[in-house]
Design brief:
about 240 residues, alpha/beta, Rossmann fold, six-stranded mixed beta sheet, four-stranded antiparallel beta sheet, about 25% helix, globular
Amino acid sequence: MPDDVAPPKVTVLEARGLTRRYLMGDVEIDALRGVDLSLTEGEFVVLLGPSGSGKSTLLNIVGGLDAPTTGEVLYRGEALDFTDQRALTSYRREHVGFVFQFYNLMPSLTARENVALVTDIASNPMAPDEALALVGLGSRLDHFPSQLSGGEQQRVAIARAVARRPDVLLCDEPTGALDCATGRVVLDVLARVNRELGSTTAVITHNAVIARMANRVIRFGDGRVVADERNPSPLPVSELQW
């Protein structure tokens, strides 16, 4: 390979022909309708679309939290076995970090202790103090969730997700419960984690502004990928205009 040609990106996660059908009473609902998707090492991807378009369903399936009706998910070329709960638990514990809209912190534990819940069961974790410093909370280690703002609680949740050094970080509306200023702080933290740890990062949002910071934007509608667009000039969070 010539010196001036970049090596090809390695595919970390791949979805092939995913469908997901739910039964609501007597009504069948198709949340996913044949979705193909690939995520490569170190990229920052935004999954953009309205509520009900299938974004969260897709993230739950590729993260091993839900199973597809048909189709398959491959992690580094190996298909996930959705019938093997032990293997799925190992996959989530060793390779995937999750950040949700709501923080899901234990109210009786400090920030450090909330992060330690996952580092105690990981094979190669950061120290909780290191993970919290990465998200700018090195001075808030011994604060309880009730003593933290919403943005600080979300950053604790991010620290908890990244402390296991996940290959893939999956974020479902991480700024959805925050005001614009606090949301910027959280997005800046996610960008820093992506840059410094190299975790492949996928962020679900319905906010088109956030898409401007991504390497790729995957647009969803009616359970399908309707566009997959590369962004040659991602913006830093400081330049996003709400």
